[in-house]
Design goal:
358 residues, globular, mainly alpha, DNA Cyclobutane Dipyrimidine Photolyase, subunit A, domain 3, Serine Threonine Protein Phosphatase 5, Tetratricopeptide repeat, 16 helices, two-stranded antiparallel sheet, 2 domains, binds flavin-adenine dinucleotide
Length: 358
């Protein structure tokens, strides 16, 4: 049943969380120790960077989207950067030095490292956003979206999401992988937030608090901006809604990922891989799946359509349209679209912040 978000209690929703002196901070934000997490320390960080620069980055661009290839294709430096095992400066300098040594024919390798460098820029860009406006950690970046989801928090949906029981195999497999490893690639993080924000209509703040306890690389500047971008409350980014069934078809077509993380899915024949709840009851009984297969929490198509409409209606309100300018002024990227041409004023680009795919 839906309830106001304030009823959730300990969430510091309407006021800033208290700042503690550094030495009082708990050693980790994690609520558990993911058994398959990356190991910490400077040596591991340097080794991870070395392997990425010399070999793994060749497959970076093609491999970062699928949760199957991403653990190897991505740099895996986020946790080391967040915990200070390695500095941004040395990662950038080593990357540039390595690129200078690449032979001209190493085009794919160079393209991978160029894409990597742009993400390192985003890292700093998003941390600066939070420095510029710390309040985006707990309230909507565009205040015109206040009240959009706050009164409708469905605790049962939230608990099912956290327990990997949404019924959508790709979502449940991602939650399981996150719990076991403390890491997910960008696209799957975005999909989790999108499912929470649109079909499940959950406010980003409790979802973000939960995810912050799961990510080994929790970095508030990146995290809260992403939560708001993927939930549509920045008011300046294009609405992106990830369909979890389509994501599975595109990025895990043979079910290797979901079958790895959800053992019961190994029993599910390919015909019902993407929508196992449609499997005839007698077959579910025969394969001992009845206790494991959860029907989706909502009808995906209907719930997504309704949520997009609610967001669209809010976006069309004159005061919300008027408020967009102030958000662009404070948060949009400013960089010349054509660096060599002289421009009188910086051109503001919003789309570039979301252009993560190739
Ligand atoms: C909802 C959501 C929450 C996120 N929370 C975090 C977080 O708490 N901490 C975090 O480091 N990243 C976060 N990200 C961004 C991204 O998913 C991770 O940086 C990336 O998956 C980490 O893996 P990697 O180091 O192999 O990344 P790579 O793809 O190899 O990227 C290299 C580095 O660039 C930076 N980076 C990559 N993508 C982004 C991005 N979109 N925005 C800003 N910087 C980026 C990170 O420092 C990363 O380590 C979040 C993304 C989403 C959608």
């Amino acid at each position: 049943m839906a309830q106001p978000i304030q009823a959730l209690g300990p969430l510091h929703f309407w006021r800033p969380p208290s700042r503690k002196p550094l030495d009082m901070l708990a050693p980790s934000h994690l609520t558990h120790n993911p058994p398959l997490r990356q190991h910490g320390g400077r040596e591991k960080a340097l080794d991870t960077l070395h392997r990425f620069l010399h070999a793994r980055s060749i497959g970076y661009r093609g491999g970062m989207s699928s949760p199957l290839s991403a653990p190897d294709a991505c740099s895996r430096l986020s946790a080391y950067l967040a915990h200070g095992c390695i500095s941004m400066r040395e990662v950038v300098q080593q990357t540039r030095a390595h690129m200078d040594q690449l032979p001209p024919q190493a085009a794919r390798h160079r393209a991978g490292l160029t894409a990597f460098l742009s993400r390192l820029h985003w890292h700093c860009h998003f941390i600066q956003k939070l420095e510029s406006e710390p309040a985006i950690e707990w309230r909507n970046m565009h205040r015109g979206y206040d009240g959009l989801r706050e009164q409708d928090f469905n605790l049962a949906h939230f608990e099912a999401l956290k327990a990997a029981r949404t019924g959508w195999p790709m979502v449940d497999a991602c939650v399981t992988m996150l719990r076991e490893t403390g890491w997910l690639n960008f696209r799957m993080r975005a999909m989790l937030v999108s499912v929470a924000a649109y079909p499940l209509w959950l406010h980003w703040r409790p979802v973000g608090e939960w995810l912050a306890t799961q990510f080994l690389d929790y970095e508030p500047g990146i995290h809260w901006s992403q939560l708001q971008m993927q939930s549509g409350t920045t008011g300046i980014n294009t609405t992106r809604v990830y369909n979890p069934v389509k994501q599975a078809q595109d990025h895990d077509p043979h079910g290797r990922f979901v079958r790895h993380w959800l053992p019961h899915m190994r029993q599910v024949p390919d015909t019902w891989l993407f929508e196992p709840w449609l499997m005839p009851q007698h077959l579910q009984t025969q394969l001992s799946l009845r206790d494991h297969l959860a029907a989706p929490l909502v009808d995906l198509a209907t719930a997504t359509r309704e949520s997009k409409q609610r967001l669209h209606d809010r976006r069309q309100q004159p005061e919300v349209r008027a408020g967009k300018k102030a958000v662009i002024e404070q948060h949009a990227s400013r960089k010349p679209l054509h660096p060599r041409k002289k421009t009188t004023a910086p051109q503001v680009t919003v789309q570039q912040q979301l252009g993560f795919d190739f």
